[in-house]
Amino acid sequence: MQNIQSLRQTVQYHGYLHAGLIGALVDTACRFAASTVSGSILTSQFSARCIAPAEGQSFIVRGRIVKSGRRQVLANSGASL
């Protein structure tokens, strides 16, 4: 789980948290989750869907393992206020 305090420098011109930063946090949370079952890992595929603008003072990102195989680990992550 990661927690980020929304800083003025991380918002885009409409005042929402920048989607690039959200993507980086989601990717990192998935990597941390995957490393608990596989050690050192690299991201082989990544996609993100923004359902609503990220507006708030604090965001929590949690990663979880969906499936662990011999060569790849599938992880899922979500961000919330």
Strand order of the largest sheet: 1-2-3
CATH architectural category:
Roll
Strand content: 25-35%
**Which sheet architecture does the biggest sheet show?**
3 strands, antiparallel
* Helix percent band: 10-25%
Computed structural class: alpha+beta
CATH H-level homologous superfamily name: Hotdog Thioesterase
Rg = 14 Å
Name the poorly predicted regions: none
CATH topology: Thiol Ester Dehydrase, Chain A
Shape: elongated
Sequence of secondary-structure elements:
EHEE
Overall strand count: 3
CATH classification, class level: Alpha Beta
Distance between the termini: 13 Å
Compute the number of structural domains: 1
Please count the helical segments: 1
Mean pLDDT: 85
How would you describe what is shown here?
The chain is α+β, with helices and mostly antiparallel strands and 81 residues long. The protein has one domain: Thiol Ester Dehydrase, Chain A (Roll), CATH 3.10.129.10. The protein has 1 helix and 3 strands, in the order βαββ. It has a 3-stranded antiparallel β-sheet. β2 and β3 form a beta hairpin. It is elongated and about 45 Å long. The model has no long low-confidence stretch (mean pLDDT 85).
